[in-house]
TrEMBL record:
SUPFAM superfamilies registered for this protein in UniProt: Arabinanase/levansucrase/invertase
Molecular-function annotations in GO: hydrolase activity, hydrolyzing O-glycosyl compounds
Signal peptide extent: 1-18
Key words of the record: Glycosidase, Hydrolase, Signal
Protein name (record): Galactan 1,3-beta-galactosidase
InterPro entries per record: Glyco_hydro_43, Glyco_hydro_beta-prop_sf
Pfam family, one: Glyco_hydro_43
Amino acid sequence: MARSRMWTLVLLAGLSAAKYIVPGGRWHDTDGSLVNAHAGCVTVDKQTGKFWLFGEHKTEGQTEGGGVSVYSSDDLATWESHGLALAPVEGHPYLSPSNIIQRPKVIYSKATNEYHMWWHADNSTYGLLLQGYARSPNISGPYTFVSATAPLGNWSQDFGVFTDYKDGRSYALYSNGDRKEGRDVYLTSFNEDVTGLEKVVHRFDKYDLEAPTIVQTEKSYYAIMSHKTGYRPNNVVAFRADSLAGPWSQPFIVAPLNTRTYNSQSGFTLTIKGKKKTTHLYLGDQWDSNSLWESRYIWLPIEIDDRKKTLNLVWHDVYDLDVKSGEWSPVTGRAYLAADAKTAGGAFKQEANFASKGTIVTGIYGNDSTVTFEGVEGTGKPQWVSFYYQNTDDMGFGDQPGGTPDRIGGTWQLRRIASVVVNGNTEKVETLFQRDTHKGIILSTPLLLTLEKGKKNTITVGGLWNGFDYKGADLDRIVVYPPEGTAGRH
Ligand SMILES: *[C@@H]1O[C@H](CO)[C@@H](O)[C@H](O)[C@H]1NC(C)=O
Ligand SMILES: *[C@@H]1O[C@H](CO)[C@@H](O)[C@H](O)[C@H]1NC(C)=O
Ligand SMILES: *[C@@H]1O[C@H](CO)[C@@H](O)[C@H](O)[C@H]1NC(C)=O
Ligand SMILES: *[C@@H]1O[C@H](CO)[C@@H](O)[C@H](O)[C@H]1NC(C)=O
């Protein structure tokens, strides 16, 4: 009996050894560095099935023009860095560190048997609005610069690509800038070789959207784009059509109102045709304009109902995706409510009908005004813990392109930073970034914490300096997830 039970456990562990996908968490590569590939794409190597992530390389002091990084993965969760696929070149008219090298996309070209990289190429004042093009026989690069051109004579800012699985043809998507004559998004076919553009297939006229991508189902195409509010997130929208040339539907919002698409911007989608299921993933960016190099990634499964012609993003703190079968399932955690936690100093519980048990903890500040969750069960292994909070610093004005954060000429704060201390160990203070939400909107940020095995852990949350003040956001609850590879997959 005991023996067979042990075998079952071993088998289960073996089956579910995959790593979790944790939107908004700090993602580390296999060297332990933050994954640094923003506003890019995932290209699948058809031969090996490997996923290759490309994106803007950002460091403190070099947030633009840092080149294009590349990572590889077998499971979309474990990422190995391969350095820069496209490196900046001092003095180059389009690749110098003072250029804009944004939203890189990589497509395999059957005709040339090479990988072709396209991106938004510009000077630092966005005066050129070109499409950069480089190529490599190797998916990991290095990519050789070919040109930077105006697509069919027009301007090109935020850049996206899409490949139709039915006929293999690829398309470029690009917003054509902020000038009065622009403010459109173009959908233009590449030539067969993916070496240049051919023909405008559709123009999303004067919607003033950006960060475009297309996701394809058997029946439909959904074009997903964001509004233009700089690095502040907004309500991402989608359009639907039976064919790329249209007619396209009216745009509709894809995530719950006022969550600003869970604090993210669109940019890419990835379809996984697994053995059992096809799963579409939204690959969004959670920009942090106060420290762009620390921007995070919001990757979520997309729920599409072609009959109802709807597309929705549903939040999951932690989910388990099997890239072979295509199946995914949310991981279930255990919640501890702020209403039941202990406050200290000036932190206090306040009625909030939108919060758990009608109560939220506010007034969290510095090291003395804190809230402590007690009796938290842990395993002794690193576990994701999600902190659900409300932060109204920017008063909801973040949605407007020309909005200002307060009425007295204030500055955008965009995020607070809370301190998180486990079992009173102040030698190890974790920093929890809490983005601006809206009044009454509760969102979450995950942290990877190691709790002691057993039910006696405490988690204390205070406030750290965010460049403006020591405030922590109002807390609703925390949710503790099982360690990676132990939740099982069904
Ligand atoms: C960028 O290009 C535009 C158009 O050529 C030009 O007017 C502008 O001065 C350039 N900006 C910089 C920083 O060179
Ligand atoms: C292709 O990539 C591999 C592994 O990164 C490297 O060893 C090889 O030299 C590259 N080939 C070219 C032509 O760059
Ligand atoms: C780009 O296209 C817009 C319409 O979408 C047009 O009004 C504008 O003149 C074009 N710009 C250039 C440089 O061709
Ligand atoms: C809280 O403590 C940390 C060190 O643990 C210190 O750096 C920080 O300044 C303190 N904050 C306040 C508001 O006293």
